[in-house]
Amino acid sequence: NAGVTQTPKFRVLKTGQSMTLLCAQDMNHEYMYWYRQDPGMGLRLIHYSVGEGTTAKGEVPDGYNVSRLKKQNFLLGLESAAPSQTSVYFCASSFDRASGNTIYFGEGSWLTVV
Amino acid sequence: GNSVTQMEGPVTLSEEAFLTINCTYTATGYPSLFWYVQYPGEGLQLLLKATKADDKGSNKGFEATYRKETTSFHLEKGSVQVSDSAVYFCALRGMYSNYQLIWGAGTKLIIKP
C-alpha cells in the first residue's frame, strides 16, 4: 500500500537553482495538493489540482509552479529557489471535494535553500 | 473566513496522565473537523474526524466531540503513553465548495516516562 509517495525526501539547493518535487499517488484520487509546513504554523496550501490537466493557486503560490499531466502525479517546481522557500513540503490527495473525505499525506520533503 | 485556533505547546505530561488539547474554530455552516497527528520525521496521518454536530470521532484511545454551540473540537485521551509524543493538528474543511483544509498551528505533545 504505497499511498502518497514524494521524492526526493531531502534536498539542499543554492539560491537561484531550480528543482522539481514529484508526488505520486496510487489511490486513483482526483484531487491533489501541495502544502508547505513552517515552524509554529499550520500547513499552508501552495497549489492544488482537481483532476488531470488542471491546476489552481492556493494560499501561497508565489515562486512555485505545478503540473498534473497524469492523474497519479503532481509535480511542484521551484524555478529560482530562495532561502524563504526553506521548508518541509507535503503532497496530499483526496477522492473528491466532499467535506468529510479524508486527505492522505505523503511523508514530506525537507528542502533547504542556502 | 474560516480559521482554526489550537492551544500553544509544547504540552508535557507524564505517562498515564489525562490529555486535553483545545481546538476552536470559526466557520460558516457546518464544516467537517479533523485531528491529524505527525510523528517525528513522518507525514501527517488522520487521527479522527467528525462531520456533523455532536458527532464523536475516536481512534487509538483518542476522542473529540464536535460541539457546534462552543465551536470546539477538543482532543482528549484518558491515559497517554510515551508513543503518543507527536505534533497534533486540528483542521477544518468547509462545507461550501472548499477544497482545502484550514489548519491550526499544531500542538507538540511530549510524554515523559
Describe this structure in words.
The complex is a heterodimer of chains A (114) and B (113). Chain A is mainly beta and 114 residues long. Helices cover 0% and strands 47% of the residues of chain A. In chain A, strands 2, 4, 5, 6, 9, 10 and 11 form a 7-stranded mixed β-sheet that branches. The N and C termini of chain A lie far apart (35 Å). The model of chain A has no long low-confidence stretch (mean pLDDT 92). Chain B has 113 residues and is mostly beta strands. In chain B, strands 2, 5, 6, 10, 11 and 12 form a 6-stranded mixed β-sheet that branches. Chain B has a 4-stranded antiparallel β-sheet with strand order 3-9-8-7, with no helix packed on it. In chain B, a hairpin with a 2-residue loop joins strand 7 (56-59) and strand 8. The termini of chain B are far apart. The model of chain B has no long low-confidence stretch (mean pLDDT 91). Classes of the chains: A mainly beta (114), B mainly beta (113).
Strand content of chain A: over 45%
**Average of the residue pLDDT scores of chain A:** 92
Which structural class matches the secondary elements of chain A?
mainly beta
Helix fraction bin of chain A: under 10%
Give the mean pLDDT of chain B.
Answer: 91
Question: Quick one: overall form of chain B?
Answer: globular
Q: In terms of per-residue confidence, which ranges of chain A show pLDDT below 50 for 5 or more consecutive residues?
A: none
Strand fraction of chain B equals over 45%
Number of beta strands of chain A: 11
Helix content of chain B: under 10%
How would a crystallographer describe the biggest sheet of chain A? Answer: 7 strands, mixed
Order of helices and strands of chain A: EEEEEEEEEEE
- Number of alpha- plus pi-helical segments of chain B: 0
- Work out the radius of gyration of chain A: 13 Å
Separation, N- and C-terminal Cα atoms of chain A: 35 Å
Strand runs of chain B, count: 12
Biggest sheet character of chain B? 6 strands, mixed
Number of helices of chain A: 0
Report the C-alpha radius of gyration of chain B, rounded: 14 Å
List segments of chain B where confidence is low: pLDDT < 50 over at least 5 consecutive residues: none
